[in-house]
Amino acid sequence: MKRTLFGTSILASLLALGSLWAGTPPAEANAAPPTLPMQPFQDASVQGQSRLLGVAIPADGKLGDLLRKNAQISAGFQIIPRASLPAALIKAASFDKKAWGAVGNVDVVILTSEAGSQIRMAMYELSKGDKPVLSRGYPAGDPLTAANKFMNDVIEYYTKEPGVFGSRIAFVRTRRDPVTSKNVYTVQMNGEATSAVTSNRSLNILPNMGPGGEVVFTSYAKRNPDLWISSGGGPTRVSKFPGLNLGGAVSPDGGTIALALSKDGNAELYTIDRSGNIKSRLTKNPAIDGSPSWSGGGQIAFVSDRAGGPQVYRMSASGGGESRVTKAGNYNQSPDWSQGANRGEWIVYSGRDASNRYDIFKIDVKSGSVVRMTQSPGRNLDPTFSPDGRWVAYTQGGSIYVANEDGNNNVEIAKGASTPDWGPKAN
Fold first, then answer.
1. pLDDT of residue 50
2. Strand partners, 258
3. In 234-393, where does DSSP find H-type helix?
4. Angle formed by the axes of helices 61-74 and 143-159, to 10°?
5. Which residue has the higher pLDDT, 228 or 2?
6. Smallest Cα–Cα separation from 305: which of 342, 331, 344, 275?
7. In this prediction, what percent of the chain has a pLDDT beyond 90?
8. The domain spanning residue 81 has which CATH number?
9. Last residue of a domain, which of 143, 159, 175?
């Protein structure tokens, strides 16, 4: 899905020295006004509300914690603290509309129970009566999967499109003990179930997740910045041309990888197959080209400094037809093309405004309209769309955050992490 870091001449020099910082500051772009807060989940009985729907989730333990975390990340609810709920309702085995209505600010109640080999979950809307509007059962013993699947169903109930809880995000974590190493990990979008892709003392950077959940990344494990791929087992070296093998991005069908190669002395974009054989050369320009990101419709976004400073461009996935996407600002990079169906043609990228603020922007490819998604102190870097285009993950201050598609409801999911890339929907 994702773009990866732009291979500027400074970056190439750092790679040659073997000391890449996987969080290069982004570029400049004219700031758009902050966007409006996300609208709450609503149904016919609560249309016109200006507040998020208040949800009470009295369950305790891991399952309760996960349900409340997922509800927070969903951006559709105001979570009622469990500690503020009456003890009688926390312990109640059934739904009591009158009692819950007396609590205040509660619109939705999610109750859980366990019977035999199943976890049962039911969602009630106080405006709809005593019957659950949503009821599901899941195998017991796996609260994370149960919480994820139920929240996906809740999101579908309100939006007619299921959520993507359970999808994973690849990222890089740096360790210094005593030498610096960088390793690739994946984590679920709610910050749960972290798993290592690499575990060595080398530099493993710029991960990209393919449609099958495979992870491609650049590594110095063999002393050259080569491209590697991991499909669940040990990583395999895919591309080992002299010089940079950088910024691999797997195509939507999984059969092709776009990347920047400097084997001929200048960073150009190529496509290779999964065995590392070159399929085609996409660019041929004295400028530096890099950071490919596939669209869902046969195009590739990339970054080039052919206009004097890094800008986002697009072209046919077979090369040719190149056109500039970002027109404002003199330094824009790290594009990621949304794969969300029926959500428009958006590319998210990192930029620095006139006040030297590092923020995340997205641009409508057709109209050129720019939306500023973050506006906060510090560096907001490395944006990546969720597989449905409704969330964005990015790096800020050494942590990864997830926000909704307008940049609101920012939730920290991973500390000491950088360069996220969001993978496909969970099975």
1. 56
2. 249, 271
3. none
4. 30
5. 228
6. 331
7. 78
8. 3.40.50.10070
9. 159
